[in-house]
From TrEMBL:
One of its GO terms (molecular function) is calcium- and calmodulin-responsive adenylate cyclase activity. One of its GO terms (cellular component) is extracellular region. Residues 24-177 form the Anthrax toxin edema factor central domain. InterPro entries: Anthrax_toxin_C-terminal, Anthrax_toxin_edema_cen, Anthrax_toxin_edema_cen_sf. This is Anthrax toxin edema factor central domain-containing protein.
Amino acid sequence: MISLHHVFGCVEEIVSAFAEYDATAGFPLQHIRVFQQVCREFKVVIASRELNPLCTDLLLEGYAAKGFHIKAKTCDERFPLAAGFVPLVPQFTKAQQNIEKQKSALRDAIENHGARKVALVISDQRFEKLKAKGLISVGQVKGGVIEIGAKSRLGAEEFQFSVTRHAKPGYWDVWYKSRVPVPSFGHDAASGSEAEKDGWKRLYVMGNPEKTGRSDYLDAVCGDYDLWGIFPHESTPDLGINNRPVPTRAVLRKDSKPHLVRRATEGQIIYREDDLADLAKKHEHPNLGNISVGVNKIRFSLNQLCRPGGGPVVMHSDYCGNPFGEIDFPLIFFIPALPSGSDVIITGDEYRVAKNVGDLRTSLREIKCKGFLVESYLNRKWSIPNYVAGNNRLSVG
């Protein structure tokens, strides 16, 4: 049995509808164990961004993880039947997401990157959990159509929802009615009576360009595990983590002085903002981003162990190697136990959740004290205020 310790200070107020996953940044226990296993195998600390807790059960049920080119946000609990998916109704998104931006991201994924439209089907398990959480209520039943009420009344005047039994026992087709215009994206995967019935329209969600090869409904994408950074132990041979197609460097602002731009460019220590997108387009992997062989080996191991034969859950490179990557919270750090032959002995696997810059500083300092390499594996464009490693202040933004 793997020993797991949540060793990060106090726990902040839980706000997620699926509170059982809040303390682990959306990670279920079985995947925490997988990440720890891979950390031990490679002798690295892996940090990941939060998985939306609304997506956790969906990922465990086998739904596809959201691919690299789908930038549209997953839906929140305000529209619970679609929560955790990426609906093709732009209004069904996160509360803080701009609807026009969501619409643009949906259109870009379909028209420019081959993303597909998948009719939304949810399981009895998901349906019952939404009811148990008080997020939905069962209303009028008419001709096999069950009208569904939502706990949140936001959007209730514009949208109605219902479910009908899917052809496969134990599953539900999801339908909606709209009193406001809903944009069309490409061609529907179903047509005629399959797409519309008695004024109800099938709810479509986003699917990756490639099919999973399993049940069609599982092609609907939910969240994925966004690797944030990988920090090898000082005793580990070079894994090639930083050997990336586009080396990460700081970025000069457009208003920087010409002589600074010239000197920085000549020294190859910095990028001009205007050049960064062109460099990424020319040199990054088209579907995995700015990934190195070392990161891809770790990604492959995580995918094989998290969901053998069931499709990947880590879809692209890490944010420490992303020329456009930002620091986002919460983050979860997986810190492995190390064998006694290592210079620094860690006796038990740990995970830590960093919810703010202060937590992040503490986590980075502590993994450095355990012998993991930090500064040279962080994104060069970032600045972490007041992060001090040894006698050197890290400020690279």
